[in-house]
Structures are given as C-alpha cells and as structure tokens.
Amino acid sequence: MASCFIAPSILSADFARLGDEVRAVIAGGADLIHFDVMDNHYVPNLTVGPLVCQALKPHTSVPIDVHLMVKPVDRIVPDFAKAGASIISFHPEASDHVDRTIGLIHDCGCKAGLVFNPATPLVWLDHVLDKLDLVLIMSVNPGFGGQSFITEALAKLRLARARIDAVQARTGREIRLEVDGGVKVDNIGAIAKAGADTFVAGSAIFGTSDYAATIAAMRAAATA
Prior knowledge:
Distance between the termini: 17 Å
Mean pLDDT: 96
Helix content: 25-40%
Order of helices and strands: EHEHEHEHEHEHEHEHH
Number of strands: 8
Strand order of the largest sheet: 1-8-7-6-5-4-3-2
Oligomer: single chain
CATH architecture: Alpha-Beta Barrel
Strand content: 15-25%
Number of domains: 1
CATH superfamily: Aldolase class I
CATH topology: TIM Barrel
Structural class: alpha/beta
Radius of gyration: 16 Å
Number of helices: 9
C-alpha cells in the first residue's frame, strides 16, 4: 500500500475552470481527486452531482474519490458509479441499511468507504469494517470548505488505525484511512502520525499559486 495519498478536494477549486484545475493538481502530483457531494438536506450546502463527475472523468488520470453527503444515499450511488467514480464513501446516518449500501457500492464496481463526522462514534465499524475499502474521519463538521482542523480527530484516527490494522492482519484486506477537513502543510505530519494514510486538502492546495510545490510539501511532511 502506498504510504501517503494526497487527495485535492475540488470543493475549493475554481469552478469556472474545473477541468483545468483537475489537470493541474494531477500534474502537480495528486493521487486522487476528492469530489464532495452535498445535497442541502444531510448537510447545509449544495454542490455538484453525477453530471459534473462525468464531465470531469476525461480530465482525470487518477481515481475519483466521491464523498456523498446526501440522504438518502442508495438512489444516487449507481449514478456516480456510471459517471466514473472509483471510490464512493457515505455517512452511516444517511443509510437505512449500512451493510446493504456497502454491498450496492461494490455491486456497482466501486470501492466503498464509510465516513465519520466529528460526533459519530466508530462503533459502526464493529459490523462492517471487514467489507470496507476506506474509512474517512471528518476533522471538521461537513458542509463547507475552509474550516479549521478539530484536534479531537487525532484520537479518533488512532482508534480507527488500530481497528484497521487488526482487520488487515486477520484478512489481508487493504483498507485506507482518510482524513478530511483543515488538513494543511503544518499539521499533516501530526495527522499522519495518528494513522491517516490518505489526506484530503481543499483550500490548502487550491488556495496556493503552486499546486505541485504544495502537494510535495504535504507529502514530505506526512512521510517525514
């Protein structure tokens, strides 16, 4: 497993030049493109849907990492799979049957992730971790970009890492531990030490003039 994946979040990109922005961060070293989907129902914001994902797919040479902040979730999963998603993550609160939603994502040919808000306990993992490909710990409350990192997420990452390591030791399954919210060059090292291996960053990348330099600095700090 690669030790460090950097996943720029297009939530902070220039939407008037989205294809150019995606190509630019990939050229700068991005490992994934993080695609935030908000429905103004589960979270208080409205962003983008499958049509935008489909439009971006020809511009991407790395996997599209779709984070569904929508409720209900099952109806939209096949649309994003068809639109080109490689990974689809969802919140347990947004699904009536978490196990069934994970199965649906896999049946659509995508990897499945489960997302934990700051106040959502990791107990959901007790029953489904051995079926997941990714666990995403939110280090902000979802809905808006540019928020500050909630430091309590470090303890949660350590607990999630211990659970993932135990399942990987038992089954050999590759499960990535992703973090999203307030990740920057100056805190990514501590976040990596807490166990994360996949880092979503929006404004910390798209708010700079040199994407490649920022991604390289993040990778160096995360792997130091």
